[in-house]
Amino acid sequence: MDIPQMEKMSKEDIIGYMRSCAKQYVPEWRYDEEKPDAGTALVSIFADMMYDNIKKFNMSVAGDLFSFFDGVNAKLYPASPAEGFVVFALPEGLVSEAEVPKGTTLFGQGEDEQLVFETQEEVLVRTMDIERIFLAKPKEDEIYELFCRQRDSEASFFLFKDGVQNLQRHLLFFCFGQELEITSYADVRLSFVPEGGRKEEDLKEALLDSSRIRFRYGTEEGFWDITEYTYENGSLCFQLQGREAGLSPVEEYGSMYVLSAEILDADFFSGIYFREVSVGTQCLGQRPEFINVNGTDQEVEEFLAFGERPSVYDECYIGNGEIFGKAGARVRMEFDLDFVRIPIEEAASGMKISWKRIMRKKEFVPEEEYDITIREVIWEYYNGYGWKRLPVSGEYRDVFAVDKELRGVRRKMEFTCPADIQRALVSSAENYCIRARIIRMNNAFKTRGAYIAPVAGNFSLSYSYFEHPIKPLMMFRENNMESAVHGEKEMQRAGFAFPACEARTEERKTLYFGFAQPPVGGPLKLLFVMHDTVRGNLTGLRWEYLSEEGWREMHPADGTEGFAHTGLISWYGRNDSRKGELFGEDLYWLRLSEGDGQSQEVKPKIEGIYPNATSILGVETVEEAFSLAPRAEEKEIRLAYGDLSSLEVRVLERPDYRHSLEEKWELWTEVEELASDNGDRKEYTASWREGRITLPKYIGSAKPNELNEIEIHVRYTHCQGAKGNVLSGGIDRLDRTIGFINTVFNPMATVCGLDGEDVMASVARNANLLRHGRRCVSAEDYEDMAREAARDIRKVKCFAGYDENGKRQDGAVTLVVLPADYGESAYSFERTRRRIYHYLSTHMDQNIVNLGRFHIVKPELIRMDVKVVLELMEEGEIFAATKRVRQELERFLNALHGNFYGDGWEIGVLPNKNQIIHALKQVEGVKYISQLSLRKYRSGRFTEYEVNEERLLPFYRLPKSGFHEVVADFR
After folding, report:
1. Last-in-domain residue among 799, 822, 857
2. 553 and 446 in one domain?
3. How far apart are CA 236 and CA 278, in angstroms?
4. In Å, how far from its chain's centre is CA 529?
5. Going by fewer Cβ within 10 Å, which terminus of the chain is more open, N or C?
6. Which 8-state DSSP code applies to residue 103?
7. In a domain, 378, yes or no
8. Which of 382-391, 591-600, 948-957 shows the highest mean pLDDT?
9. Residue 411's beta-bridge partner residues?
10. Model confidence over 549-558: pLDDT tens digits?
11. Which DSSP symbol is given to 349?
12. CATH number of the domain residue 149 falls in
């Protein structure tokens, strides 16, 4: 409100008037400030004196105006304290706690003086750092890590929204021993025996679909996919290679051979249990890795099985680690067997003999000479202690005998590989092998005749686990980032079955907060710093903690109102809180579940989480005692400080013999005006701005002391106004030592601190008060009372008949408020909104309030990027002109001081292209605007809107200058 001006001439106007008159009276004289003469000096002196008289004349009206408002008891509003939050911390590694009571004094450093703050809530400071935060989405079967204390400095994420990487895995690892060693290749049959009545066709279809389950095998370089496989008789059939790119021991799993399965279709497999998993392998047509006869290595293609002169106890070793190392496998050995005849004389002489093969028995002439032949051999294996007979040794004891009609034939031998077979040292190498040892000979001691020596070659070694598949020695299951291990004995136990996968069991999206120390005792507090550009809040949230009996519900005090704004979550931690391993972390857990039917448009973003926090005000508590004479005409008290934020006045009362004989301090009530007969009403008036208290002339209930004086006790808080708005980290110490607390800081700047109201602002406010009488009827009444409730708002506009989203709603009233710090993270808006709501809700139609149709919202800032091509008047003005154009764009698009006349833009109105072109044409040096394009972006959404899509923008909007491109030309 402006004071009416009876005369509006300024000093410049007076000088201008005298210069115009001088042209008529003294035309030869000129007023020149640069080269003043006596006349110029005289005019300047007269102008100063005249302007001073005009100001005094105009102030007479202001005096009458001030006298009027003094008559209606108008008062100046005191300064408002700054608000914020502070966080306490204990030394790193110390497990302790400390109680910080309400009213604890804190200090911060201002520009010129020390600032005082006080806590508004008590808090138990204890070691309870948040180590990990996870998000579980059961419907999508997803897990995201949103925060790790070792990695992230601050917790910053959208609530209940996806993180960077889905960590949910459903993995099965089947670990086998030496039986699964593959040197060359193996045909593999992987069998699953399901529990229950799952249809085999459904299971077959799922197992063959790589989009639902994937199989892998472990190599030296990691796990490789099994890409080609079929399904036969309840088993998956595929082939694995050995050597470098093949199946290899995995060190992570105890150097065992590992087959794994990753389940991708958790919906299908989560209901399936398997009783048994087994693997059958088969390898055919392998050659021996070595042949050793009586200590001499032989060529594996063809060799004399026991040398040229076979004798009792001669040995033939056949080695192959891949074949003979398969304990429990069915081993098949095939080889070509023939014989050569070596006369005893030749064998003894050592002459080189050209050997001839014997094909038929009738070619032998045994009348005078004897054939020395092998009658029986024993087959043995090494068990780590010595050589032991193979179980089938008796069946194949005459493999090398020649008394049969079989010569030049292929011998076959099958046996089950012993379970206790071990590597044997043969010659200079260790390997799995078997040996044939001669135990009986025919004509062993004859001196005439010939040795019938067996010749073996063309070996084919095979093994197969198809008939008796091998079971895993260990099985690892990984679900929900947690691992389970099953040993061999457990898997062989009757009734054992394991789930194919374990999906999430939550009903809704859930956040998990993991603490290294138990969050017990209280009150405990977490400060959630929210990004305040998103409207709306979350409803139906459910908090739980992990107890000895499982998850138990907790009911914290939610100062964020559903994460709509920055605030405190406060609760009392129960002693039955326990550690539990979730997501592979053994921590103490709290969890937060999303409510039902939550709108997808509400996307709160957390920008920080701070334990051991509490709210503060920029006030200092002072207690003063006063004494007044009972007969004093004016009972007025002057406090040491002004700009009060709270006030309590207590008077020492005399004994009331009807109720109590004790003296007591009675709390008095503040009123706007004292009545003439209120001696017994226990009331007083106060000027909070000046720190002045006025008591009634007669105080009947007070008890004078020994000096015949009335004792008065005053407790109040005062603030330092806008000085209390300090930056983050500006509050850094306590007024005294509390426990082991060694760190104090405010994570955000304190806000809402205002200096005391000036006279003209008070005149305008009280003038509006006379009009609306603190009753909200018209839109202007709502706007004026909003300014009265919160003096720091920049703009306010009332929209009748519109809801908070700008849609038509009968009976609705929406106040759109632009706060003082109207940037994208103006967390002070919630405090401003709360003040306005509490103040106006008691002075308006209660039907609007009770029906939930009174809304207070913040306008959305629409970033406007301008690209302009213009022509300049002069060539040398390009840099200066483009700079002026940019400055004009910044000024013109400013929400508060933009527009043509610098009065800003109305809420809900955005400048159009024509208006911007018209404003730029007024810039000095601009000749012509040849082209202008305009792009609009919604703050926080990064969505571009075309000019013709303005209807898609928020209804409550204001412009914000963005990034501009200026292209200059001249002709």
Report:
1. 857
2. no
3. 11
4. 13
5. C
6. T
7. yes
8. 382-391
9. 335
10. 999 999 999 9
11. H
12. 2.60.120
Are the C-beta atoms of residues 480 and 143 closer than 8 Å to each other?
yes
Structure tokens at 916: 């911007």
Torsion angles phi and psi, residue 199, rounded to 5: -65, 135
Query: How far apart are the C-alpha atoms of 54 and 825, rounded to whole Å?
Result: 47
Give the domain range for residue 964. Answer: 860-970
DSSP state of 577: B
Q: Tell me whether residue 100 is in a domain.
A: no
Residues 6+ apart with CB under 8 A from 380: 387, 388, 389, 390, 393, 434, 435, 436, 437
Calculate the CA 820 to chain-centre distance: 30
Q: Are residues 281 and 304 in the same domain?
A: no
521 and 493 share one domain: no
User: E strands, 465-578, where?
Assistant: 474-479, 482-487, 498-499, 510-515, 521-531, 542-547, 550-554, 557-558, 567-573
Distance CA(794)–CA(754), nearest Å, equals 13
pLDDT of residue 600: 64
In a domain, residue 742? The reply is no
Amino acid at 512: Y
For residues 840 and 817, the answer to whether their CB atoms sit within 8 Å is: no
pLDDT digits 0-9 by tens, 332-373: 999 999 988 888 875 555 555 565 655 555 565 555 678 888
- Non-local (6+) Cβ contacts of 794 within 8 A are 818, 819, 820, 822, 896
Distance CA 47, CA 41 (A): 10
Question: Please, is 13 exposed, middle or buried when counting C-beta atoms within 10 Å of its C-beta (0-12, 13-18, 19+)?
Answer: middle
Residue 747: name the closest of 615, 562, 835 by CA.
615
Do residue 902 and residue 824 come from a single domain? no
What DSSP character marks residue 603? -
One domain, residues 645 and 571: no
DSSP assignment of 397-430: TTTT--SSS--SEEEEEEEEPPTT---EEETTEE
In angstroms, the Cα distances linking 733 to 83, 86, 88, 120, 725 are 17, 10, 10, 16, 17
CB 895 within 8 A of CB 819: no
Structure tokens, 30? 């000129």
Query: Is residue 295 over pLDDT 60?
Result: yes
Evaluate whether 643 touches 77 at the Cβ level (below 8 Å). Answer: no
Q: Do both 943 and 803 map to the same domain?
A: no
What does R_g of the chain's alpha carbons equal in angstroms? 48
Residues 6+ away with beta carbon under 8 Å from 812: 800, 801, 802, 803, 848, 853, 854, 855
- What are the pLDDT digits (tens) for 583-623? 989 999 999 998 876 666 667 888 899 999 999 999 999 99
Total structural domains in the chain?
7
Q: Cβ atoms within 10 A of the Cβ of 576, count? A: 13
Residues 314 and 385 in one domain: yes
Structure-block tokens of residue 721: 């106004």
Residues 774 and 844 in one domain: yes
> Which of 222, 264, 267 lies closest to 247, judged by CA?
222
**Overall size of the chain counted in residues:** 971
**Burial category of 430 from C-beta neighbours within 10 Å (exposed 0-12, middle 13-18, buried 19 and up):** middle
Residues 670, 745: contact at Cβ < 8 Å? no
- For the stretch 829-850, pLDDT in tens is 888 888 899 999 999 999 999 9
Residue 866, helix vs strand vs coil: strand
Within-domain flag for 98: no
The single residue listed with the structure tokens 């069915």 is 330
Which of 593, 581, 590 is CA-nearest to residue 507?
593
What distance in Å separates the CA atoms of residue 383 and residue 614, rounded to the nearest whole number?
Answer: 72
Q: What does DSSP say about strands 510-515 and 130-137: parallel, antiparallel, or unpaired?
A: antiparallel
Last residue within a domain, chosen from 857, 890, 916: 857
Summarised one tens digit per residue, pLDDT across range 112-171 is: 889 999 999 999 999 989 999 999 999 888 999 999 998 988 888 888 887 888 999 999
The answer, yes or no, to whether residue 723 has pLDDT greater than 60, is: yes
Give the three-class secondary structure for 915: helix
Q: Mean of the pLDDT values across residues 920-926? A: 85
Q: Does residue 566 contact residue 821 with C-beta atoms inside 8 Å?
A: no
- Chain position carrying tokens 């947690």: 482
